[in-house]
Amino acid sequence: MLCYQGKKMKRSFPLITIMIPCIWLVSCYSSSIAQNVTQQPKVGVVKEIVNGDLLCYVTLVDKKGVHSLGASFDICAAPTKYLNKKVRAYYQIESINDCQSAEPCGKTKKESIITQMKVLKGK
Q1: What is the four-CA torsion angle of 39, 34, 95, 58, rounded to 10 degrees?
Q2: Which residue from 6, 54, 67, 79 has the fewest beta carbons nearer than 10 Å?
Q3: pLDDT tens for the 123 residues of the chain, in order
Q4: Domain of 25?
C-alpha cells in the first residue's frame, strides 16, 4: 500500500532520481568488464613479454590472431618460463594505476589482466 507522507515523500524523490542512474552506470560498467573477460584468449603461444610503466604486457597468439594483453608484473619477472610456449592464461579484475606514468596520481581503474599463466604440454 502506497501512501503520501508529506515532506518525507518530497525529500525521497530527488534521492531516487539520483540513485537509479548511478545503479545503471555501475551495472553497465560491471557488464563491460565481464564482457571483456569472456573475450580474452584462454590458451595461446606467448610471443613477447614486455615490462611497461603501469603493467606487464604479453603478446599471445591463438587461432583467432594476435592479442596484446595486460598482465601482472610477476609474469614479467620470469619471461623465459613462458616465451614461445603454449600457456593457459588466468585473468582477474585488478585495480590498475590510471596515470600517464608510473608515478602515483591517485587515479585507478578496474581492468581484467593476466595474473597467472600455466605452461601446457605440447605446442
Answers
A1: -10
A2: 6
A3: 455 555 555 555 554 555 555 454 444 444 444 445 568 999 999 999 999 988 999 999 999 999 999 999 999 999 999 999 999 999 999 998 888 766 778 888 999 999 999 999 865
A4: 1-39
